Amino acid sequence: MFREMRRSKQVLSQETAEKILREGEFGVLALSGDDGYSYAVPINYAVEGNKIYFHSAKVGHKLDAIKRNDKVSFCVVDRHEVIAEEFTTYFSSAIAFGRIKIVEDNDDPDKLRGLELLADKYSSTASAERRAKELSRLSALVVPVMTIEHLTGKAARELVKRGDFS
Length: 166
What we know:
The chain has 166 residues and is an alpha+beta fold.
């Protein structure tokens, strides 16, 4: 169902791909947009198990695309260093493929869990009072949740040879 990576010498282990995904700061969610155009949106996220959690307003291009086609991919670039004298870039990245659903119901445990994970990742120093205030806004947003079906990792050949992925 999923293609094998053509450049097999650049493939990272599943464990390394999971680490890149787990520790990344942001990623790009790729969707099927309007009129057959791709739509890729940079977005914050949190990972737990085989799920990737996002947050979103209740309306917009991203949600329209998800409703139209639940098959998505999500890319995180862990390292990106242009090496001008070698005409190359040293990089490491992970791409997750899967299906995404929009969680609207405030009673759905995925909605609260997703927001808790996002708050832990991006606002861990916020006071308990501030976090409670944000979580009280549950009904003002939705939590898209991607279930990972396939995950790949890839790095520049030079980094793979050296075992230096991040």
